[in-house]
């Protein structure tokens, strides 16, 4: 009789755990972005230009280096910060200065941001500066996009492909 009560108690306990797991698996309902809206995603990793220009080593300086470290140029590792802007229909959604990652500041600058927007036609302007200049932008892309309700458009950046890519 005691064994039967133990089995019954275990069954009730497991049933309660299953009900709790089922409840929390469906509630609260996950909403990817606000209902009735569309979404722009800006996501990229980009290594900007170096903070200081490379200098050419003389033959005497090269000879002083250990054989496995001999190279014609001396380049500092630190990169400049990437300045990025995103405008939608004349409204600035993002104006950020992205610092390079890494201990020496020699890695790429990274960003991943989501922006909910109204469905419909929009003019999107994306700008990026990855050089040592302080004025203007090195890359600028202007696109007219149409977003349906619930649609996502990803904006990527590839310098080799000429700048911003809308997908």
Explain this structure to me?
By secondary structure, the protein is an alpha+beta fold. The chain has two domains: 1-30; 38-51 and 79-166, Sandwich (Immunoglobulin-like), CATH 2.60.40. It has helices spanning 2-26, 59-64; strands at residues 38-46, 55-56, 73-74, 82-88, 91-98, 109-117, 120-129, 139-147, 152-158, 163-166. Strands 6-1-9-10 form a four-stranded mixed sheet, with no helix packed on it. β9 (152-158) and β10 (163-166) form a beta hairpin. The longest helix is centred in the first third of the chain and has 25 residues, at 2-26. The protein is flat.
Q: What is the SS-derived class?
A: alpha+beta
Helix/strand order: HEEHEEEEEEEE
What is the molecular shape? flat
**What is the strand content?**
35-45%
């Amino acid at each position: 009789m005691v064994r039967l009560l133990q089995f019954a108690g275990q069954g009730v306990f497991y049933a309660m755990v299953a009900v709790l797991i089922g409840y929390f698996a469906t509630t609260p309902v996950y909403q990817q972005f606000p209902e009735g809206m569309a979404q722009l995603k800006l996501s990229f990793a980009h290594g900007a230009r170096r903070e200081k220009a490379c200098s050419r080593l003389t033959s005497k300086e090269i000879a002083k280096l250990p054989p496995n470290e001999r190279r014609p140029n001396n380049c500092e590792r630190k990169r400049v910060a990437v300045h990025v802007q995103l405008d939608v229909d004349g409204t600035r959604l993002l104006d950020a200065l992205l610092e390079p990652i890494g201990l020496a500041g020699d890695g790429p600058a990274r960003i991943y941001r989501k922006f909910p927007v109204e469905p419909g036609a929009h003019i999107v302007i994306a700008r990026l500066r990855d050089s040592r200049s302080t004025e203007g932008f090195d890359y600028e892309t202007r696109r007219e996009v149409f977003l349906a309700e619930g649609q996502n458009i990803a904006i990527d950046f590839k310098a080799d492909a000429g700048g911003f890519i809308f997908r």
